[in-house]
Amino acid sequence: MNNHAPLIHCHGVTKRFGSGDAAVLALRGADLEVLAGELLLLVGPSGCGKTTLLSIIGAMLDRDAGDCEVMGRDPRDMNATERAEFRSSSLGFVFQSFNLLQTLTAADNVAVPLLIAGERRRRAELRADELLDDVGLSGRRDSLPAQLSGGQQQRVAIARALAREPPLILCDEPTSNLDHETGLEMFELLRRATRPAGRALVVATHDTRIFAFADRIARMEDGRILEVVDRNGMTGNGG
Fold it and tell me: Among residues 56, 95, 101, which one has the least CA distance to residue 75?
């Protein structure tokens, strides 16, 4: 972790779903800062707003009020095309359900972000092979997702998230479908991949098994971040 300007700065972020009596206030003024090179966990009970905040940071969902800058840019100021390019070039995503394309091989799944960005197929294939080797799957490049274990599919998802070398990786419950040993392996892998490059890694989770990997833990409840605790036990607010 360093003392540079935050990669993510959110202040007073609110988000409401629905209207009238059926309305749900998912975020009630959330504040969060994330620094380059750190692994920050968003933790709290189901329904506390973790995924909603992650989706706003990832330019997948609009906030209703408050401020949110990601790498100096406000996703709300972008049009649909700009958002898509921002997500593709600057963000990597790792999801609970892996989100792999079932008809494509492991190598092709990793190559997809590069091909979408206009990379030549041969170079994209070479990069995919390199990343699969990095995550320990060099021998499974031609396997379809259905032929891989859950842990192997998550490794492919991590390789795909790293394909364009984004400065920020967002993970939503990445270990909830994995057993204890595999979940720990995934976080060791993510930490090795992100730390040397100075990437920030933000993970929404309620998996206490992975707390030891965090530089800081942001505790959420009822749409707010209550406190942020660092590895030395020091507390503060999110922003």
Answer: 56
DSSP bridge pairs for 66: none
Tell which residue, 175, 207, 14, has the closest CA to residue 95: 175
Domain ranges of the chain: 8-99+167-236
H-state helical runs in 75-135: 80-90, 106-116, 121-134
- Decide: 170 and 32 in contact? Cβ < 8 Å: no
- pLDDT tens-digit profile, the chain (239 residues): 444 568 999 999 999 998 888 889 999 999 999 998 899 999 999 889 999 999 999 999 999 999 999 999 999 999 999 999 999 899 999 988 889 999 999 999 999 999 999 999 999 999 999 999 988 898 999 999 999 999 899 999 999 999 999 999 999 988 888 888 888 888 888 888 777 677 899 999 988 888 888 999 999 999 999 999 987 666 655 55
Do the Cβ atoms of 160 and 110 come closer than 8 Å?
A: yes
Residue 149: count of CB within 10 angstroms of its CB: 12
What is the value of pTM for the model shown?
0.89
Looking at CATH, the fold of the domain delimited by 8-99+167-236 is given as Rossmann fold (3.40.50)
Q: Which residue bears the tokens 């892998």?
A: 189
